[in-house]
Design a protein that fits this description.
alpha+beta, Rossmann fold, OB fold (Dihydrolipoamide Acetyltransferase, E2P), 2 domains, 5-stranded antiparallel beta sheet, 8 helices
Amino acid sequence: MITINVKKALGALQLNMQLELPMQGITAIFGRSGAGKTSLINILSGLSVPDSGVISVGEHVLYNSETQVNLPPEKRDIGYVFQDARLFPHYTVAGNLRYGCKQDDPQQFTTIITMLGIDHLLERYPASLSGGEKQRVAIGRALLSNPDLLLMDEPLASLDLPRKQELMPYLEKLAKEVQIPIVYVTHSLDEILRLADHMVMINQGEVVVSGHVNSVWGAPEMRPWLPAKEQSSLLSARVNYDHARYALTQVMLNHDSFLWVNKLSRARGEWVRVRIHSNDVSITKVMPEQTSIRNILSARIDKIHPVDEQQKVEVRLRVGEAQLWANITLWAAEELNLQVGDHVYAQIKGVSVTQDDLA
């Protein structure tokens, strides 16, 4: 595990972080501007020193105020990709990439440039590259340093939409193929949905909630941070089979619960992550018949949370081990006399697949 237990005064902001992060996949650090996201990864990298605490990556202790351990950045075995690529303008792409190499490994070099799609750029200089190409080179340079941990500070923030769309597939590939933990700072919900396995939400220098992205996304603490149109549930599912006639694929939440989604180019048994918007979920107490809704799940009410000022009710449903949120009117909740523990049916009007689930 990556252990972070630090305190640091940053002007009016008091950073007080206690975290245990996994040693694989992408962990997204999410929060508003000024919440302490970049301050956290600067402390991890050694660019900033905490007032007290402990930081370790596995068995590798980076900082311990009690034993007076404070490794300098160059000895932490951490790669850092900044918002801007920070390439050396007088080096070619190949020169920038090799700048980070601890030792010459032609096979590793070829693997990384192929994965990032920059093999055709090696003789060019940074001034001739697009923003997305520069960021891919910066990522390659960080990976070629053979880090134990990769930090990425909003790598898409300085790019326009076409460049973001250009870089995103490479980040998705990175998430699948790189076998080191990646801590990824972002304020973009879309990036979290497409890339993250683990998620940490911070506010005013403290951790609000942390865990697998599915559980954090559906946590009550997260819902006030999501715009109404973004309120949704994330569920992991396995691909089952394609419909014989229609362009649909059935995915399994568990042995008793299935969903139809737009046809996927996935093998049976592969994991995918599905997203269901809360406004697309309605509740009925009896099994619907002769309905146009294709996705109907048997569920049990786990939590009822009124949103009084909007005359709305947020209902959390339990479908096996998965959680599903529904937004309904207070009128409907009272008329149905919904109670925690009730067995109900969730009618789902829309389901989207966000990414492969790497968990």
